[in-house]
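Quick start: what a row looks like.
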Amino acid sequence: MLSFIKTGVITRTRGKDGGLVMETTTDYAGLIPRLRALFVEIKPDKVPYLTTKIHQQSATSFFIRLEGIDNMDKATRLKGCDVYAATKDIPDEFLKNRPPDLTGYQVTDRHEGLLGKVAAIESFPGQDMLHIAGDKKEWLVPFVEAYIVKIEPEKKLLTLELPEGFFDML
């Protein structure tokens, strides 16, 4: 099964022939032009697309063309969708400081019990955040060693101990 790293989001269309603008973080700006395939999350799936053009517009913005997206209607359907790269396509230099892929792991907190599942690990300047999707709520939780009690890959379980009152702030 493929594992993925979120590399950006499609923020808008450009032109009438299916052009798209993708925003990323500075962590991945050097990676994006190297990718031959991107996976666009059309919930609940990550749909693969071959890239036919990637042009960097600014430090974190790229103009992209995807194979099969050749008109405004098709492009508009992808606006707002998250974009992922398969970890197998990412050079080691971008992966060496990355946290393990915990997507789909059940997340529990020692004080609050079951929180939900890891939807993604998102990179922000300064630190990575766990995007946890619960039944009725979603949270971004700092992915820092101090909060991790244990990671059990065989059970796909992540146990955290978040500071007392953490959820009262949200």
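That is the whole record. The longest helix spans residues 72-78. Residues 4-95 form a domain with the Elongation Factor Tu (Ef-tu); domain 3 fold (CATH 2.40.30.60).
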